[in-house]
Amino acid sequence: MAENESLTEQFQALHRERVRSWKPENLAENVARRARLVADFDPSRTVRPGDVVESFQLAEADGTTLTLERLTAEGPAVLIFFRYAGCPACNLALPYYERQLWPRLRKAGIPLVAISPHLPETGLGAIRERHGLTYGVANDRGNALARRFGITFDRDLVPDGQPSPGWIGELTGTGTAELPQPAVIAIDRDRVVRFVDVSPDWLARTEAPAILEAVGRIESAAVG
């Protein structure tokens, strides 16, 4: 594990590769879409520190039911929202968190779960198997929890004509292009949100040190 590994640098390398290998029009479309999401982002509509989280249930990739009560039974928990198992940026971010975040959280007894609307029956577990992830990967069916947190985008977008097999709406079962914006949310034992970082640009996500610092503050407050 590299001590100073940067997720931002990995995303920058991914973009450079796309500049080299993608058609200019495809790259321009990708950049414009990300810019639109940043411009449209309204943080006042998302969950905030101090909000109390109501009970929820998620289905882990292996079929196990995961509840808020289980996650916060012994202390804080960290939720990482990602898009879907085939997302290139997610396939950089989740293994990065395995290397740079999860060892410290696991040692402290703090649960970490990556959450996506991608259904288990359409391949959610592939990202866990591909990278040997040892923290939880769970399905947020219909984006129910992400909607509650106010972090989804393209909620009503349906492509014209017949979408190709394996498109987002098929993977998620929603029939739309709705996905969560990448986000990290830390919740304390009392189910109060203590840290939120939402990334409307999917090539800009939360670095592990920021999450560890936030968790440290939560633990210090609990002791104090």
Describe the overall structure.
With 224 residues, the chain is α+β, with helices and mostly antiparallel strands. The protein has a single domain, classed as Glutaredoxin, CATH 3.40.30. Helices cover 38% and strands 16% of the residues. It has 9 helices and 9 strands. It has a 7-stranded mixed sheet. A two-stranded antiparallel sheet has the order 6-7. It is globular.
Write the layout of secondary structure elements.
Blueprint: H1 7-21, H2 24-40, E1 57-60, E2 65-67, H3 68-71, E3 77-81, H4 90-100, H5 102-108, E4 112-116, H6 126-131, E5 136-139, H7 144-148, E6 152-153, H8 168-172, E7 179-180, E8 183-187, E9 193-198, H9 208-223
Parallel strand pairs: 3-4, 4-5
Antiparallel strand pairs: 1-2, 1-5, 3-8, 6-7, 8-9
Roughly how many Å is the radius of gyration? 17 Å
Report the top-level CATH class. Alpha Beta
Q: Count of helical segments?
A: 9
User: First CA to last CA: what distance?
Assistant: 33 Å
What do the pLDDT scores average to? 94
Q: How much helicity do the residues have?
A: 25-40%
- Tell me what the CATH architecture is: 3-Layer(aba) Sandwich
Count of beta strands: 9
Shape: globular
Low-confidence runs: none
The biggest beta sheet reads: 7 strands, mixed
How many separate structural domains? 1
Proportion of residues in extended strands: 15-25%
Strand arrangement, largest sheet? 2-1-5-4-3-8-9
* Helix/strand structural class: alpha+beta
Instruction: Write out the CATH superfamily name.
Output: Glutaredoxin
The H-and-E topology, N to C, reads as HHEEHEHHEHEHEHEEEH
CATH topology: Glutaredoxin
